[in-house]
Amino acid sequence: VQLTESGGGLVQPGGSLRLSCSFSGGILDINGLGWYRQAPGKERELVAMISSRGNINYGDSVKGRFTIPRNNAKNTLYLEMNSLKPEDTAVYCCTYRGTWGQGTQVTVSS
Prior knowledge:
By secondary structure, the chain is mainly β. The chain is built from no helices and eleven strands. Strand 7 and strand 8 form a beta hairpin. The protein is globular and about 40 Å long. The mean pLDDT is 95.
């Protein structure tokens, strides 16, 4: 299993970004994939996780602002982030059943 994140960067508060997780190595669909984030000095935090049945669970701090869209490109999982806040600054990692990508940095700052 290989996971590669992209799409991070610097964005102003209130802005939007779309992260991508490209996956390969036997993952047949997006069920079981998810996003976590970790800010400096803080514990890893759930952003969004897709269950084996396709239900999406969002972390409390991102509900209503972040979305995993229904339509994703082949072998890609997106994370659409809107109304970004400085506290969203973190490294965002894609995960699948214990395998992690290296992450992509998101910085929200004016």
